Amino acid sequence: MEIGLADTIRALRQELATAMADGEGSPVRLRVNSVKLDVEVAVTASAEANGGVRFWVVSAGGKAAGSTTATHTVSLELTAETDQGGAVLTSSDAGVLLPD
Known about the structure:
alpha+beta; four-stranded antiparallel β-sheet; 1 helix; 6 strands; 19% helix; 38% strand; elongated; disordered C terminus
């Protein structure tokens, strides 16, 4: 099963959105300044007319096969922000009240 790099980032973005929603109204919230994502990707070149070059995430323990495929580790440092450019705040899930 091939999972595209864009699909991986989309899933990460959805997880952060879920964490933000879970944090609404929580007494303790965490700010996400940056997200570091290290993934092993396969780069595949296709000889087909519409093929081009594709990046896809290699599954755990999986290896890409074929002479036109190479694997690389890609590190992405992403800054999380809301659609208005604000900070992303998530819940701590602990529900701890801090003393004044």
